[in-house]
Amino acid sequence: MSDTWLLTEDRVWPERVPWKESLFSIANGHLGTRGTFEEGYGDSVPATFMHGLFVTPAGDLPYLAPLPDWTGVIITVDGVRFGLDERLPAGYERTLDFRTGVLTRRVLWRGTGTGLLRVEFLRLLSMADPGLASLEVTVTSLTDDVQIGIETGLDGSITGPFGAPWSRVDWKRPKQDRLTMRAQSDDGASVTASCVVRGLGPMGVIHHARHPRLTATLDLAPGEWLRMVKHTAYRRGADAPELPDTGFEEVAAASSSEWSRRWETSHIEVPGDPFAEHALRFAAFHLIGGAPRNGEGAGVGARLLTGYGYRHHVFWDADIFCVPYLTMTQPDLARAHLGYRHRGLPGARRKAAQYGRVGAFCAWESAGTGDEVTPDWGETPDGERIRIRTGEIEEHIVADVAWAADHYHRWTGDRAFLDTEGAEMILDGARYWQSRIEMDPEGRGHLRHVIGPDEYHVDVDDNFFTNVMAAWHLAAAVRHGAGRDDLAGRLGLEPGWSQELENLARSLRPMPGPNGVFEQHDGYFALDQVEMSRFEPRAAPMHYVLGEKVLERSQITKQADVIMGLVLLDDLHDPDLIGANLDFYEPRTDHGSSLSLAMHSVAASLAGRPEDAYEYFRRAAAIDLEDSMLNSNHGVHAATQGGLLQAALVGFAGLGLGPGGPETRPRLPEHWEALGFSFVHGGTRHEWEARAGKPARGDKAPRADHDGGG
Ligand code: BGC
Description:
Layout: E1 6-9, H1 17-23, E2 26-27, E3 31-33, E4 48-50, E5 54-55, E6 63-64, E7 73-77, E8 80-81, E9 91-97, E10 102-110, E11 116-125, E12 132-141, E13 146-153, E14 168-172, E15 178-184, E16 190-198, E17 204-206, E18 213-220, E19 225-236, H2 248-266, E20 268-269, H3 274-290, H4 316-329, H5 331-343, H6 345-354, E21 377-379, E22 385-387, H7 390-393, H8 397-412, H9 415-436, E23 438-439, E24 445-446, H10 464-481, H11 485-490, H12 497-507, H13 542-546, H14 548-552, H15 562-568, H16 575-585, H17 596-606, H18 610-625, H19 638-652, E25 656-658, E26 661-663, E27 674-681, E28 684-691
Antiparallel strand pairs: 1-9, 2-3, 3-4, 5-6, 7-8, 7-13, 9-10, 10-11, 11-12, 12-19, 13-18, 14-15, 15-16, 16-19, 17-18, 20-27, 21-22, 23-24, 25-26, 27-28
Helix pairs in contact: 3-19, 4-5, 4-8, 4-19, 5-8, 5-9, 8-9, 8-10, 9-10, 10-12, 10-15, 15-16, 15-17, 16-17, 17-18, 17-19, 18-19
C-alpha cells in the first residue's frame, strides 16, 4: 500500500461502482456527497445530503432527502457523449485525499471516432464554509481538433430509493453565469441552491423545468485545454445562499486548512502496518466529515452522509460506537450529537407515555426529532413480511445515550453540558428505568420482554447487556443527580429518589455462572447449540442461512452482546472474565451485524490477546474497505468506523481515564512497533506513542495545547 492518507483506485469495476461511491464520499459536517461520476454511470446512486434535512412522505417514515444535484456534468466530444460505461477509459485513476478532503479523478478517454482527451475532475465540500460545494473540470485535447460541449446546472429531478423528495421546484437565472433553485417537499421541507459556473465564456441555458443547465461549446486544438469551475451553495429554506468570488484553489486551500486543524487531534500512525494505518485514517476521515458539526436537527446517522442506508436514522451506533472516539479527538462533534439527543427528549417522553411509563424512552431509530421512527415491518430475503420490534423493546438505547453523555463529561470536564443538558438526559432516562423495572418477591429486579444487541432473540427476559447498562445508568443518575434535587423534582422524581435508584441498580446485577460466563438472557444456556463452522464459507448472516425461527431456538447470537457489556463497563474489565466470555461467545457469534467485530477486537485486547484483537480488527476493516458484508453500497458503516478507532485507542493502546487523567495499557500486536495517536482531554491536546509493554504516558510529550475541548 502506498500513501496511507489516500484512498485510490486505478480502474473502473462496473459491478463495484455503487460500493465505491460510498467509499469515495466526501462530507464536511453539514453536507455529504457520494463519490459518483460527474458524467453519470449505469446504476450509480448520486446523492448529496444535508444534515437534518429530512423529508417525510405521507404515510411513510422520514428519510434524508437528496439535494438538487450539483455534481452532474454532461460533456460531449464532437457530439459523442463522454461516459465510462459507454467506452472504457484508456487510463483512469481516482484519489480521495483524507488530509484535504479533495476527490480527484483523472481519465484518458477516446469516444467512438473522436480524438484522445484527458479529463480531470476535482471536487470538495468546504470544511471552511459548510454550505459550499466546489468542482473543477479540466478537459485537454491530446491528439485532435475537437469541439467540446459542456452542460452543468442543478438537478431537482433527483430521486432515491424512497422516491422523489421535491414536489415543487422553481429556478431562475439571476445572472448569465448563475442558477438558483428552490426545492420544496410536500411536508414543507425546503432548500435553496445557487451555482455559478466560470471558465467557459458566454453560456446558454437549457430550460428544463427541474434540471436547468448552463451550456457552452468550445473548440480545442491538440494540446489545448478548458477549465470549468463551478461553486454550488446550499441553504435550508427560501433564501438564496452566497457564492464565493474565488476560484477552486482558494476554496480548496481554506477547506484544507480546516481539515489540518481536525487532523491535529485525530492523528494516528501505525509504523510498519500501512494497512491498519490506512484503515484508521479512512475511518477518522469519514467520522469527522459525517458527524454533524452543529445543532442542525441531526445526530450521527448509521451510514454517515454516504448513502441511503437506514434512511440516515440515528441508532445506538452513534452513541456507543462513534461518540466515544469523537469525544476523545473532536469533542465539539461529540457535543453536537449530544445536543441532538437532548433536543430529542420531548420525543423520548412521548414514547415513554405511549407505553404507559414515565421519563425518557429514547427512540431506537430517530430522525429530525426524538420521536420513534423504526419501521414496524420489514422483509426477509425470501420476501416474507416480518414485524420489526426493535422500536418497541430494544430498550438498552436509553442507557447507551446516558453512557455517551457520561463518557463525554468525564473526558472533557464540560460542566456546562452537565448543568444544561447532560444531567437532565441522564436523570430522565433513569426515571424511565424506574418505571420499567419489575421487582420479584425475592427483591430481584427484572427487565422482561426486551431485545438486546443480539436481535436474533426477540422478546427475552433479563438480557445481560440491557440489565448491566440499566444498572450502570441508575447508578450514574445518582452520581450526576447529587445536589440537583430541583431538577429531579421537575422531572417527577420523588424525595428519596436517589436511594431508590441505587436499590434498583443493585437489584439488576447479574452474577456470572460458575465458569465466569454470563448468560446472555434468561434461558439462553438451554437453547440449541449450533456448529456455525458447518456453514462456512459464507458471506450471508446466519438469519439468511437458517431463518428467524431456527435462530430463535439456537444459541447463535447476532453480535457482541455480553461482550459489549464487558467492554463498556470499567468495573467489568477483568482480563480473565473477558477471556472466559470471549471463549464461550465467539463460537456462538455470527458477527451478522457490522457492529460486532470491532467490539470483539476491543474485548480481545482487554483480555490480553492482541493477536486475536488484530484478526478481529482486520475483519472489521474489511466490512467497508472490501465490502465483505456486501452492503456498503448503501453507505459506509458509521459504527464499524467508530469501532475500529476504538479498537485502536481503547483496545491496542489501552487508552482510558485513571485517577490522574488519561493513561494507557498498550497491548500491541506482535508486528506493531508502536501506535502513535493524538487525543484531547479536558481541552488539552496530547500526542502519545504507545509501545508494547510500557504505558504511553510521557513517552512523547504533548505537543501543544488545543482549544478543542468542551
Ligand atoms: C444492528 C443494530 C444496529 C443497526 C444499525 C442492525 O443490524 O443489529 O445493532 O444498530 O443495524 O446499524
